[in-house]
C-alpha cells in the first residue's frame, strides 16, 4: 500500500471520508467488495482448491444419497453388523441351544448388531461383505460344505479388513482347507489329546495390556479345556488354562492379524453352561468388538 494513501489527500479522498463519517453517524457502514483488490492466487493453488471443492461436494452428495451424514473417516466403526455362522457341529455340541446364548451375549454390546445364519454354506455363498465380523460357531463334517471355496472367501473377507471370531470347536472347522491354520492361528489336530475331562478349571489372563483383556480378572469356568490345538502361525495369547491331566498351560484365547483384518479365537463354549459365566460372555463380547475394529475401554474404567 502506497504511503500517501494513509494521508488521504485530494478532493476525491475528502468526499470519500465525508461519506464514511456520514455512514458511521447513521450506524450503517456497508461492507463493500472491491473487485480491484481480489487476491491474486497462483493458478495451481486455485485449481487445487477447485478440485477439493468438487470432491467435497461429490462426497456429500454420495452420503446424502445413501442416507448417511457426512463424517470424517475413522478406523473405529460406531456400529457393526455381525453374522454368527452355525448350523452344523459335533453332535455333543447343541448349537441350537448355544447359538442364541452367544448371540445375546454379543448383542449386549450395543454397538454390535448380531444375526444368526444356520448354514455353513453361508461362507461359500453368503454376502460376507454385508458384515463387519463373522463369528464361526460350527464344525462342518461335510467337507463339501462349505468346502475350500468357503475358506478362501472367508480368508479374503478378513484380508480385506473384516473381523473373524472362532468359538470352541470352530478350531476344527474347514479341515478340508489346509490354509485355515493361517487364518485361525491354531486348529484342531485330531492326533492330539482332545481335552481334559469336562470340568471346572481356572482361566488365567496372561495379557492384561491387550484391549480385549485390559482390566480383566482371572476366572473359573466349567468347560472343556482344549489340549488339541496345533499350528505355528504367530499369535498373541491373551488367556491360558493349566491342564489337570498333564500340568501344561494351554492357550484359551488368542488374537492375530490377517491382512487388514483381526481374528479373535477362544476355545471356551462347549455348552450353554460354559457360555453363561459373565467373564466368558465378556471375553467373547470384547473379542468381537475388537475384531470389528472398535475402541474398547479397559474393564472397570468409567468415563
Ligand atoms: Zn465341546
Structure characterization notes:
The chain is an alpha/beta fold and 303 residues long. It has a domain at 80-291: Rossmann fold. Helix content is 30%, strand content 20%. The protein has helices spanning 11-26, 43-65, 95-107, 122-125, 147-159, 180-184, 272-275, 278-291, and strands at 80-85, 112-117, 133-136, 163-167, 187-188, 199-205, 219-223, 229-230, 236-242, 249-258, 261-266. The strands form 2 sheets. Strands 2-1-3-4-11-10-9-6-7 form a 9-stranded mixed sheet, sandwiched between helices. A two-stranded antiparallel ribbon has the order 5-8. Helix 3 (95-107) links the parallel strand 1 and strand 2 (112-117). Helix 3 (95-107) packs across helix 8. The longest helix has 23 residues, at 43-65. Bound molecules: zinc ion. Zinc ion is lined by residues 93, 168-169, 224, 270.
Brief write-up:
The protein is α/β, with parallel strands linked by helices and 303 residues long.
Question: Which terms would index this structure?
Answer:
binds zinc ion, disordered N terminus, 9-stranded mixed sheet, Rossmann fold, two-stranded antiparallel sheet, 8 helices, 303 residues, alpha/beta, 30% helix
> What is the C-alpha radius of gyration, as a whole number of Å?
31 Å
CATH topology of the domain at 80-291: Rossmann fold
Provide a count of the helices: 8
> Can you tell me the overall shape?
globular
What small ligands are held by the chains?
zinc ion
* Helix/strand order, N-terminal first: HHEHEHEHEHEEEEEEEHH
Tell me the helix content. 25-40%
Sheet with the most strands? 9 strands, mixed
Structural class: alpha/beta
Instruction: Give the full name of the CATH homologous superfamily of the domain at 80-291.
Output: Class I glutamine amidotransferase (GATase) domain
Can you tell me the residue ranges where pLDDT is under 50 for at least 5 consecutive residues? 1-10, 20-39, 59-73
Kindly report how far apart the N and C termini lie. Answer: 55 Å
